[in-house]
Specification:
The complex is a heterodimer. Chain A is mostly helical. Chain A is built from 13 helices and one strand; from the N terminus they run H-H-H-E-H-H-H-H-H-H-H-H-H-H. In chain B, strand 1 and strand 2 form a beta hairpin. The chains are: A mainly alpha, B mainly alpha. Chains A and B meet through strand 1, helix 4, helix 5, helix 6 and helix 11 of A and helix 15, helix 16, helix 17, helix 18 and helix 22 of B.
């Protein structure tokens, strides 16, 4: 219990490091120095000290977007067995709540974007809800396969793959889920090839363009929520990759943290080596992710 | 007095509530008051009877009846009572809403008719749910169908309403014909008209035709794709509280009928479960996709009813597959989730129709694209719509999430243990399908909520001084919003009732899985709410001192409201992806020059693919083809005599040649 709480706190505090790792990787590949690893912390500190600026067309819904975009990943990380320890809150069917809170966040972030009445933000919101609709079945298919492998209906049991010897029995399925969920991670967190967080040309953006009008602490909420969401999705991959729970707390923590950094580096490498996809190709890639995860289900059902 | 007698009293009270009003001259408020009071009294009594029956056991009475069959039976068990709760809650709140929405003083030409048939529909719905045999069932069913026709055509001077009513009436009667056939076969198989479980049914050769007819007949009433043709127009044409009743309750009559027939089976064939899941997935996905393509607010909500019927069918299918596999654990979850979704859909869809009605009355239009920015002037209506929208998308911590959670969990449970084969695969398909449906619903309701309530006003209609409606309408909205929140925050209670009602479907097995599973879920939504509230308050406190400025517009400072995303453009990508199903009419203006012509914008309309693309053109073509045959039926006696002579000669010649 204590270790679980410590792991949760560590994730909440260290989450902004992950975008830093990605940026650093991209900079190194490009031969630049890049921003410091802690840049996101500096940004957050600055944003939280600033004042709000809100558009005259907006209502309270505009504020709900940033609030929910922080709350959703925090609740999701309560449900995850972080660092190889059981989740703080674990119950039958918690994976459905895990998916549900992110849907809640998507609803309010997109509504907040529409509240500004700006065509750019409307465009971003339309794209976000479109692509997420295709990413969600992929997530569910993967979880179905894990349920079949582990016989468990909670995230904690589902990811205890070492104990259920799932890695030995159905490693092919796990690799398929990894591939599928990596695509989902890129799509849900607005990374290349779905979205390019570094361009500031509104027409090419999805997530960034939705939050154009948020300023000060509201933007801080969104930046922090985004980092935490990225960490939560990366944690899903790490838990697939590190199947068993190493004994001691420190070792488990180190393995998990190392895994997260690894995911960050891979995302950075992908972003360095690829350009953004044409928008019409995005659904095809997401359907591919769904098919991969669906195939994983078929394999474990043999 | 038993619960059933109380129910019959309530039904009579609701049924006659509109009668006194007919004695008053049109336009007099007194008749309206009497009708509302009687109707609400009836609904309170009926809800009490339903609650009583939910707590207690089944009651049956038989009355002598000088007709074939000899007697007519009424019976009230947990399953009927479960379906009766939304009937009386939605109908009762609806008549309070109607007090303000369709006030006699504003609608003297049809207010009395509306209230009379509203009461008749309520009463006959109660009779359908309380029917103990096929006679009572069909009698109630027919009265609902005919009375609902008058509700759909309340505005008898509106050609669109008449067309909608006409299509509704035709499909209702096609459905009744199918049910006549179904009940006749059912009697042959079971040896009686009573709607009670029958061992003989399982081994009967008629089982498959009976179930197929039930799927068709009840599916037509429930609006299952592709039998949904009557639904979108009828919902759009009716007054909003009637739309709520149609969508929240009358559609469920089809689900109730199906469930009642299922409860008579001694065992579930696997193909039935697979058919239910397949119908559910197609209705769910296509319903929400068609909704995305709409920009008439009430048609959009109507297509979402099809989606939610799909979700209910997925739940029933998951349950039936569990029973077919002998796996009670997921059968309970599927059935309980499907039944609970009946309640949930009644609550949030009625809430959405009520708030849509308030918006439509305030702006005078149903076109989403000419609304916008209404949240600032209609705070309560907007908040109510938002609660309904979040609930219908299945978002935690509201009620839609609870029932979808049950069904999804049932689907996950199918993969545990050693179940195998088509039954398990079918049930497992439910979870990703629900995820897709839920995510598409989020897209659709962001679009609807944002285009109606957020941003800047888009057109002249929205620019008028809209405001929150009067207290009677707000009361009904508030009551339903509260129901959505309470079921969401206290899921164990509602799911327990769903499980008890599902007892009739479990063929004598007792199941308690859903309760154990729901234990933990109860606490999480509370946590979520507390957390959201704390963060929201903190943000709001900081935002109070916020500087106000215009929306950042890329430096082009003269955009105005017209450059906002519209409902059509918001959904364009998703509709494009599902073009094969929606078949939209798109209008893409060619953009030329630095200052494109004013007034031209992207538009996309989506007529119903089955009714408008397939059925009506097909029938029209069929009629012109049959026109060839009409030449011989010219209406001239001489011609007919000639036909007879020619026939006789031919026959004589033929017989002579032998």
């Amino acid at each position: 219990m204590v270790t679980s709480i410590a792991n949760l706190l560590a994730v909440l505090v260290l989450a902004p490091l992950l975008p830093g790792v990605i940026n650093k990787t991209k900079a190194l590949v490009a031969g630049r120095t890049g921003p410091p690893l802690l840049q996101v912390y500096f940004d957050l500190a600055k944003l939280l000290r600033k004042g709000f600026v809100v558009s005259t067309t907006t209502t309270w819904v505009f504020l709900a977007g940033p609030v929910v975009s922080v709350v959703a990943p925090v609740v999701a990380s309560l449900l995850l067995p972080l660092g190889g320890r059981p989740a703080l809150l674990s119950f039958t069917g918690d994976m459905i709540l895990f998916v549900g809170v992110f849907a809640l966040a998507r609803f309010f972030v997109a509504a907040a974007a529409m509240d500004t009445g700006s065509p750019f933000e409307g465009m971003g919101a339309a794209r976000e809800v479109t692509f997420s609709a295709l990413a969600e079945p992929a997530l569910l298919f993967g979880m179905l396969a894990l349920t079949r492998m582990s016989g468990s209906l909670s995230l904690t049991g589902m990811f205890d793959l070492g104990a259920s010897a799932a890695w030995q029995k159905s490693s092919a399925s796990i690799i398929l889920i990894l591939a599928s969920w990596f695509i989902v991670l890129l799509a849900e967190n607005a990374r290349v090839p779905f979205d390019d967080p570094t361009t500031h040309l509104e027409l090419t953006m999805i997530h960034e363009v939705m939050v154009l009008d948020h300023a000060g602490p509201a933007l801080g909420f969104i930046v922090y929520g985004g980092a935490l969401k990225l960490t939560v999705f990366a944690e899903l991959l790490v838990m697939l990759l590190i199947p068993s729970r190493p004994g001691s707390g420190a070792l488990a923590f180190a393995a998990s943290a190392g895994g997260l950094v690894g995911v960050g580096v891979v995302v950075g490498l992908v972003e360095s080596s690829m350009a953004r996809l044409r928008l019409v190709r995005v659904p095809q890639l997401l359907v591919t992710a769904t098919l991969l995860a669906g195939f994983a289900v078929v394999l474990v059902l043999r | 007095m038993t619960s059933l007698e109380l129910l019959l009293v309530a039904s009579v009270l609701a049924g006659v509530s509109g009668l006194p009003g007919l004695l008053f001259p049109p336009g007099r408020a007194a008749g309206q008051r009497i009708a509302t009071v009687l109707h609400v009294l009836g609904c309170v009594a009926g809800a009490g009877a339903a609650a009583w029956a939910l707590a207690g056991g089944a009651v049956t009475i038989r009355l002598a009846w000088p007709l074939p069959g000899g007697s007519v039976a009424f019976s009230l068990d947990r399953l009927s009572a479960f379906f009766l709760v939304p009937v009386f809650v939605v109908a009762g709140l609806g008549s309070i809403y109607g007090e303000g929405y369709w006030a006699e003083s504003r609608h003297p030409e049809n207010g009395r008719k509306l209230r009379f048939f509203y009461g008749v529909v309520t009463a006959s719905l109660a009779l359908v749910m309380a029917a103990g045999d096929a006679w009572a069932f069909l009698a109630g069913w027919e009265v609902v169908s005919v009375a609902a026709f008058f509700l759909v055509t309340t505005d008898q001077n509106d050609a669109r309403a008449l067309r909608a009513g006409w299509i509704y009436l035709v499909s209702a009667h096609v459905g009744t014909l199918i049910l006549f056939a179904m009940f006749t076969l059912l009697r042959d198989a079971t040896g009686g008209w009573l709607l009670v479980p029958s061992e003989a049914l399982g081994s009967s050769a008629l089982l498959r035709p009976i179930l197929l007819l039930a799927l068709a007949g009840f599916g037509l009433k429930a609006g299952v794709i592709p039998l949904h043709i009557w639904l979108p127009d009828a919902h759009a044409a009716a007054p909003s509280h009637v739309s709520a009743l149609l969508s929240g309750v009358v559609l469920k009559m089809g689900i109730y009928g199906l469930v009642r027939v299922l409860s008579m089976l001694p065992a579930y064939p696997t193909w039935l479960g697979l058919a239910l899941v397949a119908l559910g997935i197609s209705s769910g996905v296509l319903g929400v996709v068609l909704a995305l393509a709409q920009h008439d607010l009430k048609r959009l909500l109507a297509y979402h009813s099809i989606e939610n019927i799909g979700i209910i069918l997925i739940g029933l299918g998951v349950g039936a597959l569990g029973m077919a596999q002998g796996r009670l654990d997921w059968a309970v979850l599927g059935f309980a989730g499907g039944l609970l979704h009946v309640w949930n859909h009644a609550a949030f869809k009625s809430l959405l129709f009520y708030s849509a009605g308030a918006v439509i009355r305030a702006t005078g239009t149903r076109e989403i694209d000419s609304m916008g920015g209404l949240l600032r002037r209609m705070r309560f209506t907007g908040a109510a719509f938002l609660v309904g929208a979040a609930a219908i998308c299945g978002l935690p911590p509201l009620n839609g999430f609870v029932s979808e959670w049950l069904i999804t969990l049932g689907s996950f449970r199918a993969l545990t243990g050693d179940s195998a084969g088509a039954g398990m695969l079918g049930a497992a398909a439910g979870a990703p399908a629900l995820a897709l449906i839920g995510a598409l619903a989020v897209a659709c309701f962001v679009k609807a909520f944002a285009a109606v309530f957020l941003g800047s006003p888009r057109g002249p209609a929205a620019a008028i001084e809209a405001g929150d409606p009067n207290r009677s309408m707000l009361f009904s909205m508030g009551g339903l919003a509260l129901a959505c929140v309470v079921i969401g925050l206290w899921p164990a209670g509602a799911a327990g009732l769903g499980r008890d009602a599902a007892g009739a479907l479990l063929l004598g097995h007792a199941g308690s899985r859903a309760d154990a599973d729901l234990g933990a879920l109860g606490g999480i939504p509370l946590l979520l709410v507390v957390f959201l509230a704390a963060m929201g308050l903190a943000a709001a406190a900081r935002a109070r001192r916020a500087a106000r400025t215009t929306t950042w517009d890329c430096g082009y400072a003269s955009g105005g409201p017209r450059i906002q995303y519209t409902a059509s453009s918001f959904a364009q990508m998703l509709v494009g992806m599902f073009r094969w199903a929606v078949l939209p009419d798109e209008h893409r203006p060619s953009v030329a020059g630095p200052f494109p012509a004013a007034g031209e914008r992207f538009e996309s309309h989506a007529p119903d693919p089955v009714l408008d693309r397939l059925l009506l053109p097909g029938l029209t073509r069929g009629r012109s083809f049959l026109g060839l045959a009409r030449v011989i039926q010219a209406g001239r006696i001489q011609a007919y005599l000639l036909y007879i002579v020619v026939t006789l000669v031919v026959l004589l010649a033929w017989s002579a040649s032998w």
